[in-house]
Amino acid sequence: MTTEHSASSIDYLHPTTAAPPGPFAIWWLAPWPWWCWIGPLVLLVAPATWFTGRPLSPAALYMWPAILIVFGGISLLGFAVIAVLRVATRANVAARHRAEVTSESKSIKSALVVLWLYWLFLGTPLGIRVAAWSRFGTLEQVRQRVEEGTMPPGSTFIAPLYITDTELGADGVTILYTDGKRGSFPGGGAGFLYLPPGVAFPGYNRGNDGHLVGRWYWFVTD
User: In this structure, is residue 1 part of a structural domain?
Assistant: First the structure.
Protein backbone atom coordinates (compact mmCIF):
# COMPACT_ATOMS: atom_id res chain seq x y z
CA MET A 1 0.00 0.00 0.00
CA THR A 2 1.44 3.36 -0.96
CA THR A 3 0.74 6.79 0.57
CA GLU A 4 0.60 9.82 -1.67
CA HIS A 5 1.88 13.19 -0.49
CA SER A 6 1.20 16.55 -2.02
CA ALA A 7 4.14 18.34 -3.62
CA SER A 8 3.95 21.12 -1.03
CA SER A 9 4.21 18.73 1.93
CA ILE A 10 7.14 16.92 0.32
CA ASP A 11 8.90 20.25 -0.28
CA TYR A 12 8.35 21.28 3.33
CA LEU A 13 9.79 18.00 4.67
CA HIS A 14 12.80 18.15 2.38
CA PRO A 15 15.96 18.99 4.42
CA THR A 16 16.95 21.77 2.04
CA THR A 17 13.58 23.52 2.22
CA ALA A 18 13.35 26.44 4.66
CA ALA A 19 10.53 26.55 7.18
CA PRO A 20 8.09 29.43 6.68
CA PRO A 21 8.91 32.48 8.86
CA GLY A 22 7.02 32.78 12.13
CA PRO A 23 5.47 35.97 13.60
CA PHE A 24 8.75 37.20 15.12
CA ALA A 25 10.70 36.61 11.90
CA ILE A 26 8.06 38.43 9.87
CA TRP A 27 8.12 41.35 12.30
CA TRP A 28 11.92 41.50 12.44
CA LEU A 29 12.37 41.30 8.68
CA ALA A 30 9.87 44.10 8.08
CA PRO A 31 11.58 47.49 7.61
CA TRP A 32 11.44 49.80 10.64
CA PRO A 33 9.84 53.23 10.28
CA TRP A 34 12.04 56.14 11.43
CA TRP A 35 10.42 56.37 14.89
CA CYS A 36 11.45 52.79 15.71
CA TRP A 37 15.07 53.84 15.34
CA ILE A 38 14.58 56.86 17.60
CA GLY A 39 12.76 54.91 20.36
CA PRO A 40 15.81 52.97 21.64
CA LEU A 41 17.89 56.16 21.50
CA VAL A 42 15.35 58.00 23.67
CA LEU A 43 15.73 55.27 26.29
CA LEU A 44 19.50 55.54 25.94
CA VAL A 45 19.72 59.33 26.19
CA ALA A 46 16.86 59.93 28.68
CA PRO A 47 19.11 59.31 31.75
CA ALA A 48 21.26 62.22 30.53
CA THR A 49 18.59 64.63 31.80
CA TRP A 50 19.65 63.65 35.33
CA PHE A 51 22.98 65.35 34.57
CA THR A 52 21.86 68.10 32.19
CA GLY A 53 18.56 69.16 33.72
CA ARG A 54 15.13 69.62 32.16
CA PRO A 55 15.02 70.10 28.36
CA LEU A 56 14.52 73.71 27.24
CA SER A 57 16.07 74.91 30.49
CA PRO A 58 19.37 76.82 30.55
CA ALA A 59 20.54 74.25 33.11
CA ALA A 60 20.90 71.81 30.21
CA LEU A 61 23.37 74.24 28.61
CA TYR A 62 25.72 74.38 31.60
CA MET A 63 28.55 72.68 29.71
CA TRP A 64 27.54 73.86 26.23
CA PRO A 65 29.07 73.10 23.75
CA ALA A 66 30.97 70.22 25.40
CA ILE A 67 27.72 68.57 26.54
CA LEU A 68 26.52 68.46 22.91
CA ILE A 69 29.70 66.71 21.79
CA VAL A 70 29.54 64.14 24.62
CA PHE A 71 25.86 63.17 24.57
CA GLY A 72 25.49 63.73 20.83
CA GLY A 73 28.41 61.37 20.32
CA ILE A 74 26.88 58.81 22.69
CA SER A 75 23.58 58.89 20.80
CA LEU A 76 25.33 58.49 17.43
CA LEU A 77 27.37 55.59 18.79
CA GLY A 78 24.18 53.99 20.13
CA PHE A 79 22.52 54.49 16.75
CA ALA A 80 25.46 52.79 15.00
CA VAL A 81 25.40 49.82 17.41
CA ILE A 82 21.63 49.33 16.91
CA ALA A 83 22.06 49.55 13.13
CA VAL A 84 24.91 47.01 13.03
CA LEU A 85 23.08 44.54 15.29
CA ARG A 86 19.90 44.89 13.26
CA VAL A 87 21.67 44.38 9.92
CA ALA A 88 23.45 41.27 11.22
CA THR A 89 20.40 39.68 12.83
CA ARG A 90 18.09 40.46 9.90
CA ALA A 91 20.57 38.83 7.53
CA ASN A 92 20.71 35.75 9.77
CA VAL A 93 16.90 35.46 9.99
CA ALA A 94 16.55 36.02 6.26
CA ALA A 95 19.11 33.32 5.47
CA ARG A 96 17.38 30.87 7.80
CA HIS A 97 14.02 31.34 6.09
CA ARG A 98 15.41 32.16 2.64
CA ALA A 99 13.56 35.45 2.67
CA GLU A 100 14.44 38.78 1.12
CA VAL A 101 15.67 41.70 3.22
CA THR A 102 14.09 45.06 2.43
CA SER A 103 16.43 48.04 2.59
CA GLU A 104 15.96 50.43 5.50
CA SER A 105 18.18 53.20 4.15
CA LYS A 106 15.33 55.73 3.84
CA SER A 107 14.08 55.24 7.39
CA ILE A 108 17.66 55.36 8.73
CA LYS A 109 18.30 58.65 6.94
CA SER A 110 15.03 60.08 8.28
CA ALA A 111 15.93 58.96 11.81
CA LEU A 112 19.36 60.59 11.55
CA VAL A 113 17.72 63.86 10.47
CA VAL A 114 15.36 63.72 13.47
CA LEU A 115 18.31 62.97 15.77
CA TRP A 116 20.25 65.91 14.33
CA LEU A 117 17.26 68.25 14.84
CA TYR A 118 16.81 66.96 18.40
CA TRP A 119 20.35 67.89 19.39
CA LEU A 120 20.21 71.14 17.42
CA PHE A 121 17.20 72.33 19.42
CA LEU A 122 17.85 70.75 22.83
CA GLY A 123 21.65 70.57 22.88
CA THR A 124 22.27 74.17 21.80
CA PRO A 125 20.83 77.58 22.80
CA LEU A 126 18.70 77.54 19.62
CA GLY A 127 15.83 75.68 21.31
CA ILE A 128 15.32 78.15 24.17
CA ARG A 129 15.82 81.08 21.79
CA VAL A 130 13.05 79.84 19.53
CA ALA A 131 10.83 79.14 22.55
CA ALA A 132 11.48 82.62 24.03
CA TRP A 133 10.89 84.29 20.66
CA SER A 134 7.59 82.45 20.17
CA ARG A 135 6.40 83.34 23.70
CA PHE A 136 7.93 86.81 23.87
CA GLY A 137 4.59 88.50 24.55
CA THR A 138 3.84 86.19 27.48
CA LEU A 139 7.35 86.67 28.90
CA GLU A 140 6.78 90.43 28.82
CA GLN A 141 3.42 90.04 30.59
CA VAL A 142 5.03 87.96 33.34
CA ARG A 143 7.86 90.49 33.64
CA GLN A 144 5.36 93.31 34.09
CA ARG A 145 3.55 91.40 36.83
CA VAL A 146 6.86 90.70 38.58
CA GLU A 147 7.78 94.38 38.46
CA GLU A 148 4.36 95.38 39.78
CA GLY A 149 4.54 92.80 42.57
CA THR A 150 1.37 91.02 41.44
CA MET A 151 3.08 87.79 40.36
CA PRO A 152 2.47 85.11 43.01
CA PRO A 153 5.44 83.00 44.11
CA GLY A 154 5.84 79.51 42.75
CA SER A 155 5.83 77.82 39.39
CA THR A 156 4.12 78.78 36.16
CA PHE A 157 4.05 77.27 32.70
CA ILE A 158 4.76 79.37 29.61
CA ALA A 159 4.55 76.48 27.14
CA PRO A 160 6.98 75.03 26.35
CA LEU A 161 8.96 76.77 29.11
CA TYR A 162 8.49 75.66 32.71
CA ILE A 163 9.21 78.45 35.22
CA THR A 164 9.86 77.28 38.79
CA ASP A 165 9.73 80.75 40.38
CA THR A 166 10.07 84.48 39.68
CA GLU A 167 11.87 87.33 41.39
CA LEU A 168 12.63 91.03 41.03
CA GLY A 169 16.34 91.47 41.63
CA ALA A 170 18.64 94.43 42.14
CA ASP A 171 18.51 97.32 39.62
CA GLY A 172 15.11 96.12 38.40
CA VAL A 173 16.44 92.91 36.89
CA THR A 174 13.60 90.40 36.43
CA ILE A 175 14.53 86.77 37.11
CA LEU A 176 12.50 83.83 35.82
CA TYR A 177 13.90 80.62 37.25
CA THR A 178 13.74 77.37 35.32
CA ASP A 179 15.77 75.72 38.09
CA GLY A 180 15.80 77.15 41.58
CA LYS A 181 13.60 79.49 43.58
CA ARG A 182 13.52 83.03 44.91
CA GLY A 183 16.83 83.93 46.50
CA SER A 184 18.85 81.41 44.50
CA PHE A 185 20.44 84.03 42.23
CA PRO A 186 23.31 85.04 42.10
CA GLY A 187 24.72 81.99 43.86
CA GLY A 188 22.61 79.29 42.23
CA GLY A 189 19.80 78.44 39.87
CA ALA A 190 19.23 78.77 36.15
CA GLY A 191 16.72 80.64 34.05
CA PHE A 192 16.08 83.91 32.25
CA LEU A 193 17.05 87.50 33.08
CA TYR A 194 15.49 90.71 31.83
CA LEU A 195 17.92 93.63 31.92
CA PRO A 196 16.34 97.12 31.95
CA PRO A 197 17.95 99.72 29.64
CA GLY A 198 21.29 100.88 30.97
CA VAL A 199 21.69 97.95 33.40
CA ALA A 200 24.73 95.74 32.85
CA PHE A 201 24.62 91.97 33.09
CA PRO A 202 24.83 91.30 36.86
CA GLY A 203 27.76 89.48 38.37
CA TYR A 204 26.95 85.94 39.54
CA ASN A 205 28.42 82.51 40.15
CA ARG A 206 28.86 82.12 36.40
CA GLY A 207 28.41 78.83 34.67
CA ASN A 208 27.16 79.82 31.22
CA ASP A 209 24.87 82.43 29.65
CA GLY A 210 23.81 84.07 26.43
CA HIS A 211 21.29 86.29 24.68
CA LEU A 212 17.66 85.19 24.10
CA VAL A 213 15.52 87.89 22.51
CA GLY A 214 15.15 91.62 23.09
CA ARG A 215 16.57 92.41 26.54
CA TRP A 216 16.16 88.83 27.73
CA TYR A 217 19.14 86.58 28.50
CA TRP A 218 19.58 83.03 29.71
CA PHE A 219 21.91 81.99 32.53
CA VAL A 220 23.02 78.97 34.52
CA THR A 221 25.15 79.17 37.63
CA ASP A 222 28.23 77.08 38.32
Answer: no
In a shared domain, residues 89 and 162:
no
Cβ 156 vs Cβ 166: under 8 Å: yes
Q: State how many domains the chain has.
A: 2
How many Cβ atoms from other residues are within 10 Å of residue 4's Cβ? 6
Q: Which of 92, 124, 156 is the last residue of a domain?
A: 124
Cβ contact 156:139 at 8 Å: no
Which tens digit of pLDDT belongs to each residue from 129-156?
A: 999 999 999 999 999 999 999 999 999 9
Residue 109: C-alpha distances to residues 38, 68, 213 (Å) = 11, 20, 33
Alpha-helix residue ranges (DSSP H) falling in the chain: 7-13, 23-29, 34-45, 49-52, 66-97, 105-122, 126-134, 136-148
Domain span at residue 19? 7-124
Q: Are 220 and 185 in contact (CB under 8 A)?
A: no
Q: What are phi and psi of 4, to 5 degrees?
A: -95, 140
- Return d(Cα 143, Cα 166) in angstroms, integer: 9
